[in-house]
Write a sequence for this structure.
């Protein structure tokens, strides 16, 4: 039976770890706060006292934590997973990290005989719990082949962009464009409200017209009704992704004025309600200046 260590049981990681249990893997789990692990432990996961403890005897270690700092902490500190992983073990980073971080981690873990692949994901927490994520992979082809048995339970689409780091490049572009759409939508909705339009009609027209991307469809309803229940992606995480994306852009294509403007908008959204739904951008845009 394959053994997986799963680290980071937030909105996304909790459902992903559950998928390994459903698929019959032997699963060790660790999360900074233990409460989020309780039901997984009841379903048969082994609670671990640290990432290092979780990684003992694992064939693969999968991480799903917030950002670069959290990733560094769970892989590389003295209690980090790398301390006990055996040579040849897979290190699968599903967290959305910066491009430079993915390269640094690959180099560091490779020097310890481990195989690091970046595998950020798209899909909401419901897709994570159903094993229906899209996996955006950066890895040597041979490493990806080794990783596939550990990707099957969590994703139904694998997009292999090339060498380590390339999955992260695509993920950052994708989420930067998402940020642009959501911030633009907030401005459009606020203008429509101030102009006194029938907002039921606006919602219907947005959801069926030429700008009706999945982001616009999802967030237009939430913004117009100001119903942000069931937040799945926070302003803090969107801001983090836009920051990493703009940092990458600066090394390749300095300028990107739209991306910089949207990053500034998400600076404000994070200050307004970091741990709330990213769609609360509408509250910032529509308040009197
Ligand atoms: P979340 O619910 O906020 O969970 C964040 C996780 O990171 C928690 O397990 C948290 O531990 C852990 N963490 C944060 N700082 C840490 C630190 N310094 N040391 C150790 N652990 C730390 O976030 P999420 O929505 O699951 O997102 C996780 C990752 O997936 C992020 O990189 C995000 O960008 C990406 N992502 C999210 C979505 C989405 O729809 N939510 C979609 C695609 C990708 P605690 O539980 O103890 O706080």
């Amino acid at each position: 039976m394959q053994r997986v260590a799963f680290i980071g049981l937030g909105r996304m990681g909790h459902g992903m770890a559950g998928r390994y249990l459903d698929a019959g893997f032997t699963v060790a789990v660790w999360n900074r706060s233990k409460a989020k692990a309780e039901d997984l432990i009841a379903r048969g996961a082994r609670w671990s006292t640290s990432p290092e403890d979780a990684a003992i005897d694992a064939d693969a270690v999968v991480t799903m934590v917030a950002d670069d700092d959290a990733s560094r902490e769970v892989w590389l500190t003295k209690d980090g997973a790398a301390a006990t992983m055996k040579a040849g073990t897979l290190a699968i980073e599903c967290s959305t990290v910066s491009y430079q971080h993915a390269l640094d981690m690959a180099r560091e873990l490779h020097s310890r005989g481990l195989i690091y692949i970046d595998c950020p994901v798209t899909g909401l927490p419901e897709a994570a719990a159903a094993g229906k994520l899209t996996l955006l992979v950066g890895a040597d082809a041979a490493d990806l082949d080794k990783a596939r048995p550990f990707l099957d339970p969590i994703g139904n689409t694998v997009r292999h962009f090339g060498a380590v780091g390339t999955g992260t490049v695509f993920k950052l572009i994708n989420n930067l464009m998402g940020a642009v759409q959501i911030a633009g939508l907030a401005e459009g909705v606020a203008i429509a409200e101030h102009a006194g339009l029938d907002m039921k009609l606006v919602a219907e027209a947005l959801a069926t017209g030429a700008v009706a991307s999945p982001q616009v469809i999802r967030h237009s309803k939430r913004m117009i009704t100001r119903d942000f229940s069931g937040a799945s992606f926070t302003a803090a995480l969107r801001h983090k992704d836009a920051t990493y994306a703009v940092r990458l852009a600066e090394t390749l294509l300095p300028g990107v004025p739209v991306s910089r403007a949207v990053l500034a908008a998400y600076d404000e959204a994070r200050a307004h309600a970091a741990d709330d739904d990213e769609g609360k951008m509408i509250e910032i845009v529509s308040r009197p200046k």
